[in-house]
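To: structure subgroup
Subject: Chain for Friday's discussion

All,

I'm putting the inputs and outputs inline so they're searchable in the archive.
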Amino acid sequence: MKKQLCLLLAALLLLFACAGLSEDAEAVQGLPAETETAQGEPEEAQEPPALPEGPAGTPIEVTAMEGFSPIEYVFASDPERAGAPQRQRPATPPTQHVKTFQYSEIVVLRGIFEKSGFFFKIPAYWDTRYAFAQIEYTVSPMIQGVPASLTFFINDHPIYSCAVNYEDGASQIVFVSIPLEYLAVGFNEFAITGYVRLYDDDGCLDDFSGANWVSVSDSSFIEAGYNLLDFGNQISYYPYPLISTMDETGADLTLYVPSQALEEELRAAFLLRADLGNETSTEDRIGLKTIESDLPARGNALIIAQTDRLPSAIKAHMPMDTHETREGAFVYLYGHDGAYTMVLTAADAKDLTEGAYMLMDEERVTQEKYDWAFVPSGASDIVMANRAQNALIDNGETIKGITNQNGIDFIGPFHQESTIYLPFSGGFVLGEGGKVELKMRYSDNLDFDRSMVTVYWGTTPVASKKLDREKATLDTFSFMMPSDVVGTHAASIKIAFDLEIKELYCTKRADEMPWAYVSGESILYFPAGNASTYDLSLRPYPFQKLGLFNHLAVVVPDAMDEYEYAAFGRIAALLGPDVAPYGVLHVWYASRFPHETENAHVIALGTWKDNVFLQTINDRLSFPFTDSGTRFASNEQLLLSDRYAAEICILQFVRSPYQESRAILAVCASDTKTLSQLDRYAAVQENTWAFAGDAFLIDKDLETKSFSFLKDEPVEKASLRERIEANRDAILFTIVSTSVMFLMLVAVVLILLRYRRNRREEEKK
């Protein structure tokens, strides 16, 4: 009897244990918690070391603990020992050119510790001779006689520290020389960190350190002086010398195609025009014209044409050893009269896209160390077959993969946050099934009743979790992205810790400070989805998906004039931000467009008279053409006068009546000259931020109006198979745990039945 009761008790205990495991699985919302390192051993909590000391103003570089980034929590000098800020512009050598990288917004430093980064790009064709930062800042009045300092970094190397003080609210300037040995070709990060120690009458107290105490003005900038390297006409420097930091608007560059261009010539031109638009700054003045209308012309040129359609003067520069009989595209570059011409040509026009893809692909173009290159037919197929299109979609992504950091540190009490800019190219909106799994640890001296972590999608909070003393050495925060952010876009996520301490008093030693750490192995899985509506503020969605043209068909008039060629180029630039090669793009003449069978998003360009496709969808337009096609008709949101209706250019979305989940963007006007209003308006970068709504009107004075006519559609939900795949581990865990619980329940029932039977037999005796 005792043996049976013991078995019953053991079964019940095991049943309760399984139930507890099931509750833990629910707590992570379907994602298994990580409890061990890659080696299978639990990770130990690591406390940040004490602040280093050194001579006033002298940077002290400290090797970080394993698993922590080198310097995010180590400061170049104690604020009490930091020297006065450098107020004089550093001496600089004479250079051919000077480039200023202007801050685009005000930066505010908050709390005891804060770090803010500013990115700037050093091109490969620069011979950089000097660089420095001019930082204009104001300090809060709470920093009066209080030790506070700023420390500056370039690419995570500490380069300078200085003390800061309140000066009657006046703005102050500090100059920071940037050592050239720390600069890299490509993007560089100039970062500022601040440290402040606040005191009260009894000693030191940091209760108010969450306040904003330093504000860096948007008039701050980095200046770099450079000479030009001798690039030897190498194609590897593309898009230099066609466009460069000496001509950031692209005003000296024109793309050319033959008159009555072939659809394949227009396709390659659309790709390259979209790509080159990413190289401009403030304005985009790159032109697109026909060879016959403008050549020969002064300035730089990019010519795209089938070989037998090239002018003889251009064809004469083709290297003789390129063997024109080979199947593929040729790219060659030559200088003339202080300018440069690049030619993309092919014996068969369909191969022009191969050359365009090569020029757009940085990994491939940088291999072309001569003034001509041959791109074999089918090369892009090989590339696509061997390259994962996007790790975020296929396998998820880690914080380390995105930021190139081993992890993210959060040091100091109160609210600490870090923004992670996501590597999404144009046209991304969040799909169903997104999830986040943060692997983290934190100090155990927190007030765990008030300390928590919160994750934001852009600026929208999506999940929070209280910190737990029992899990301080290793904790996991896992959750699925909520449904209300599915179908929306965000360029970043933000991780914020509220690190509260009971009876916080003094923070002179870093190892007494609260801290948290998020591992670089933390996973961010954000699948691409569809928005609930079409809106120009979401562009380049839906025409791009993760940087690739997304089954896009551009439908143009059978015979285009100069205004329509210009508008064609402008649309490419407007809808091509961050575009990458190897997407699906076709250009069709309107009379040849198979609109009822082509499963594509469509951009239809032109007027009523010259684009027959616009006539087929006219009854679906929010602003349809009148019967004569000479002006637009009024609608329920705007009454148009006859003259005004004939002088406006309109971009308007409609849902495709031919293919499900596809959109059509009509870019249209009553005549081609009026169509040029789009080109003039969108050439100014600041104006492109104003595009919004599903209908956008531009009048002859470049005044605009935006409208929303399309009703939201339900966001596409993931299929049952996709949901199962996204939560496979959790489902397997649930099945196994449920099965164990069921078997144990059966065992308990059998034991009880046997016990009852044995008891009856004993009573009969």
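Points worth raising on Friday:
The CA atoms of residues 269 and 304 lie 7 Å apart.
The mean pLDDT is 81.

D.
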